[in-house]
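Hi team,

Below is the intake form for Threonine synthase from Paenibacillus monticola. Please confirm the fields before the structure is written into the shared record.

FORM ID: S-0412
PROTEIN: Threonine synthase
ORGANISM: Paenibacillus monticola
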Amino acid sequence: MSYSYLSHLDCPQCGETYGADSIQQLCVCGSPLLVRYKLDILKEEWSREALLGRKPDLWRYHELLPVLDCNNVVTLGEGMTPLLEIGEFITKR
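The structure came back. Fields below:
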């Protein structure tokens, strides 16, 4: 199983495609790039059970993040954000 199922970057404006192995923020036309993943392969190789036992942070979903090598992960210790019912929020104010 791969650390990331990143496939490539592409431009929604002009259709230019960029490899996933180089840092590229904007297309030559100036448009922001979209990240594309190998979702068909991920669907075959990954299961929900893969999340069990992982730390509760953003990187638990590394298969769908644009970082190919775990040695390039940068974190500030961010964790999961809890979801609250709107009524719960209003009554606590």
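SUMMARY LINE: The chain is about 15% helix and 15% strand.

Thanks, M.
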